[in-house]
Amino acid sequence: MSSVQPNSHFVDLKDIPADVLHHILDTAKRWKAARRGLPKGAVDEGAPLEGYTLAMIFEKSSTRTRISFEMGMQQLGGSSLVLQGGSMQLGRGETVADTARVMSRYVDAIMIRAKSHDAVVELAEMGSVPVINALTDRSHPCQLMADMMTIEEHLGSVSGRPMAWLGDGNNVATSLIEAAVKFDFPLTLGCPDTLSPNAEALAWAHAEGGNITVTTDPVAAIKGAEVVFTDTWVSMGDDPNDGRMETLEPYQVNAQLMAHAADGALFMHCLPAHRGEEVTAEVIDGPQSVIWDEAENRLHAQKAVVAWCLGKI
């Protein structure tokens, strides 16, 4: 087991050692297997987070994030407290620093789905309890932990497996770039010039020796990939009328494009999906799609993330 310290943050994959990330996923797999046959609401053996409370701040709407974290805390024997950003003093001008100091007196950890990545970083710096990034405008590390877990369940080790991203170089793409370095796999991102991936993330990945390629050619991006990722073309906060829909049309993941991937390639999507836009129904509902396993694994991966942050694994 990796050596961990309580009060560790989970803000970006790039800041967490690879062996720790593997340890978190190994724990998630073990806990998932142990739950087979148990009722969904049953508490895990030993109730490892009994007496612990996770505050969950939502500045953006959520389905999978809220349910998976809330059920995860229940299964670990702990409790959760749901807070809407707009109903807090944080939404009325109280500083992030003051919010962090106060909340640290009340709860054991904070999960936040935020508009601003800088706010999450400040929350972690100014508070005295672990902070978990459940999505920001920059990154989505919890999603990628579930994705890596899903790939390993279906294909075995992710190391060395070529993967492809198609579409907007958004926050999920940023965390995928970081995952490619930490889990050691080649990644090609097919994105239009106007929606290219985060330049800072790419520079970091190349400095770390990552095998990352960016192209505007969707066929070149997907060619030979064993795993294909995409995401909605219009994320929360994006303007659907800024021309992005037309720009992204060539990057739609359809049967013709998937034919260029490796035989048996997996299709992944973090959801929610818009069938007929970024992906066709034929692909997302087809035999190569593992989106439901991917969605379920948010629960298992995040349970292990919270437990690691609190020094329980």
What is the topology?
Elements: H1 18-34, E1 53-58, H2 64-75, E2 79-84, H3 96-106, E3 109-113, H4 117-126, E4 131-133, H5 141-155, E5 163-166, H6 171-182, E6 187-190, H7 199-207, E7 212-215, H8 218-222, E8 227-230, H9 244-248, H10 255-258, E9 266-269, H11 281-284, H12 291-309
Parallel strand pairs: 1-2, 1-3, 3-4, 5-6, 5-8, 6-7, 8-9
In short:
With 313 residues, the protein is an alpha/beta fold. Helix content is 39%, strand content 13%.
How would you describe the overall organization of this protein?
This protein is of the alpha/beta class and 313 residues long. It has two domains: 13-139 and 298-309, Rossmann fold (3-Layer(aba) Sandwich), CATH 3.40.50.1370; 142-294, Rossmann fold (3-Layer(aba) Sandwich), CATH 3.40.50.1370. The chain is 39% helix and 13% strand. It is built from twelve helices and nine strands. It has helices at residues 18-34, 64-75, 96-106, 117-126, 141-155, 171-182, 199-207, 218-222, 244-248, 255-258, 281-284, 291-309; strands at residues 53-58, 79-84, 109-113, 131-133, 163-166, 187-190, 212-215, 227-230, 266-269. The strands form two sheets. A five-stranded parallel sheet has the order 7-6-5-8-9. A four-stranded parallel sheet has the order 2-1-3-4, with helices on both faces. β5, α6 and β6 form a beta-alpha-beta unit. α6 (171-182) runs parallel beside α7 (199-207). The radius of gyration is 19 Å and the shape is globular.
